[in-house]
Amino acid sequence: MIHQSKSYLKFLRTSRNQHGVHSPFVYQLVTQCFYKRQQHTAYEIIKSYKKRIRKNKATISVSDLGSGSRIFKSSERKVSKIGKFAGTKLKRAKLLNRIVRYLNILKALELGTSVGLGSVAIAAGNENTSVLTIEGCPETAKLAKDNFNSFNFENIELINGEFDNVLPKLQSTFDLVFIDGNHTKNATLRYFEALLPLSHNDTVFIFDDIYLNKDMTKAWELIKNHESVTVTIDTFKWGFVFLRKEQAKEHFVIRV
């Protein structure tokens, strides 16, 4: 918590809005996507899904395959509590949904399904977008899959398996990669390297919880300086990474 607090104070000092952003690509992304607040029908779907999760009082046994939970002390967890504390927040879900539309994402990959809020944020209202989401915990994966079926999400495919076992089997290229699982430095870097061959010039990587701990922040710094990376956007909660070869290497810290 001390690391997060110090990092957030630094973020507040160094972050900016669209003013002072001289990259046309980033300026348009911030003004036309990040800050676009108009309502969209997809938001109601996301809200309904989130409401379903929050009302689910069932208890499941969660297998933590990554860094573990800072909030839950037991593997036995109420679904409603997972949705409240561990799932993608509504504000971020709306942002993710806008990003998919704005960047015309056709193929998305998510590492870390949890109860499915991130997957739904990508898929809702974006019928032309196919979402492949991977979850290591069997009970969590079953819960998410059942909920996807209840909401008739035909554009979401869920694989239950450990990331390191599933990633080598993937052959498709992805337009968006959302990494929201196993929040450790070595694992994050390993997934990034493994997924680079499945990316292209316009792929966007989104890393969750880049200031969760010192290790995750170190991973974020190494990714920013990776030779394949040109543009990064630090929004504190999420780190955005672009590989656009036509862009000069530049790092932005943006309030969202």
Automatic annotation (TrEMBL):
Domain of life: Bacteria
Residues spanning the signal sequence: none
Family matches, as Pfam families: Methyltransf_24 (PF13578)
GO molecular function: O-methyltransferase activity
Transmembrane regions listed in the UniProt entry: none
PANTHER family assigned to the protein according to its UniProt record, in alphabetical order: CATECHOL O-METHYLTRANSFERASE 1-RELATED
Descriptive protein name: Methyltransferase
Organism of derivation: Croceibacter atlanticus (strain ATCC BAA-628 / JCM 21780 / CIP 108009 / IAM 15332 / KCTC 12090 / HTCC2559)
